[in-house]
Specification:
Blueprint: H1 7-11, H2 16-24, E1 30-31, H3 44-56, H4 71-82, E2 93-97, H5 98-110, E3 116-120, H6 125-133, E4 137-141, E5 143-144, E6 147-148, H7 150-160, E7 164-167, H8 181-193, E8 198-201, H9 217-221, E9 229-234, E10 245-249, H10 252-266, H11 271-283, H12 286-310, E11 317-318, E12 326-330, H13 337-347, E13 349-350, E14 352-353, E15 366-370, H14 376-396
Parallel strand pairs: 1-13, 3-4, 3-7, 7-8, 8-9
Antiparallel strand pairs: 2-10, 5-6, 9-10, 11-12, 12-15, 14-15
Bound molecules: pyridoxal-5'-phosphate.
Pyridoxal-5'-phosphate (PLP) binds near residues 35, 98 and 99.
Length: about 400
């Protein structure tokens, strides 16, 4: 039989990250590609004990649950959100299969195919995949080290009347950038004036290397009901991605609509995982664990930053991240990092070419390096191989 795929999936680019991860399986490739947390820091014993507690509660733990998610976990998360000046009740929250599904559900209920969505340039690759699957036209505003440039966002809003802004204001993926407070306030105001809801995606906010506070757009808006901001976060980076548990908060009527959409998608996310997380929060000091992860990732970032600095690479620049999981490199003008990747993989190291993070007109001389998965000798060897690949590439061209 011949199959005709929908126009939406035919446009879908295979994720370069996934393709590279496939390549990296089963050989000695050192991967700086995936956004993988450090496995040795997973709280395995605490998760096992939490699971034991769930099973000790009886067979009801294995029953279907409500679409919005396990109520005790929603209540616990409301407390954690309140501590970050985001006050919501459980009706203003939905638990999702990772924050990835939260993005998809919110986009699904707030847009029509053909609508425009405003994003930062560059932006999260799997976000771009959601927008393509939802038939959206992506318009990308220029950004600098302080975040989206408001004047450019304003111009694009006038031209394209986007239905949504999608943003990762704190330790963005791929750039690791943090929006300044001024930019946060400006973008929030701009979106409110133009009736554009914002999806604020915050998987990395807790992974910070200093004591600075970065108030979420949601907290600056100060209200959920009829508010402009829908905030999403996840346990993937702070506990473990395999638990596939994220959440979204915001206006209760939009959350209720997202729950209807979720019913159609998967009825509910794994309540087993949600119950495990609820027990974990009750009996394990997650905040102490987050501090431990952040400290270790800060050290790994410094390690990679120092190794790269020592190489004295010509025309290779990056900003030292203040948090998150990625280093964003600008490579010599004219260097195509997709071509560089092939040489790097031959040398035994992988990264993600920057072009993956643009909906159109990619800046090709960019690359994203993850620093959380590897450490010590492997990071050193990986950077040596990477630098070698740049050397070979520039010598050839
Ligand atoms: C910016 C961003 N948003 C969302 C996600 C999705 O995370 P998860 O679905 O595991 O919660 C990721 C994962 O890497 C991410 O980098």
């Amino acid at each position: 039989m011949e199959y005709r795929f929908s126009s939406r999936v035919s446009q879908l680019q295979s994720s370069a990250v996934r393709d590279i991860l496939k390549l990296t399986q089963g050989n000695d490739l050192i991967s700086f590609a995936g956004g993988l947390p450090a496995e040795e820091l997973f709280p395995v014993q605490a998760v096992r004990e939490a699971a034991d507690r769930v099973f000790a509660g009886g067979p009801g733990a294995l029953q279907y649950g409500v679409t919005e998610g396990y109520m005790p976990l929603r209540e616990q998360l409301c407390e954690r959100m309140a501590a970050k000046k985001m006050t919501v009740n459980p009706n203003q929250m939905i638990l999702t299969t990772g924050s990835q599904q939260a993005i998809d559900l919110l986009v699904g209920v707030l847009t029509e195919p053909g609508d425009a969505i405003l994003v930062e340039k560059p932006t999260y690759l799997a976000g771009l995949q959601v927008f393509a699957m939802r038939g959206l036209k992506v318009i990308a505003a220029e950004s600098d080290e302080h975040g989206i440039i408001p004047e450019d966002a304003e111009r694009l809003i006038r031209e394209h009347r986007p239905k949504l802004l999608y943003a990762v204001p704190t330790f963005g993926n791929p750039t690791g950038r943090v929006w300044s407070l001024e930019r946060r306030r400006k973008l929030l105001e701009l979106c409110k004036q133009n009736h554009i809801p914002i999806i604020e995606d915050d998987p990395y906010g807790d992974i910070k290397f200093d004591d600075q506070e970065y108030p979420s757009l949601f907290s600056l808006e100060e209200r959920a009901e009829k508010g402009a901001v829908f905030y999403t976060s996840t346990f993937s980076k702070t506990v473990a991605p395999a638990l596939r548990t994220g959440w979204a908060i915001g206006d209760s009527s939009v959350i209720a609509m997202a729950a209807k959409a979720k019913q159609a998608a998967d009825i509910h996310s794994s309540t087993m995982d949600q119950q495990i997380l609820s027990q974990l929060l009750r009996h394990f000091d997650l905040d102490a664990h987050i501090r431990l992860i952040a400290k270790s990732y800060g050290e790994r970032m410094n390690e990679m930053h120092t190794l790269l600095t020592k190489q004295k690479l010509q025309d290779v620049t990056w900003a030292k991240p203040k948090g998150g999981m990625f280093l964003w490199l600008e490579l010599p003008e004219g260097l195509d990092s997709e071509a560089l990747l092939r040489g790097a993989v031959r040398n035994g190291v992988a990264f993600v070419p920057g072009s993956s993070f643009y909906a159109s007109n990619p800046q090709r001389n960019t690359a994203r390096l993850n620093y959380t998965f590897n450490t010590g000798a492997r990071t050193q060897l990986g950077i040596e191989r990477f630098v070698e690949a740049i050397g070979e590439f520039t010598a050839r061209s």
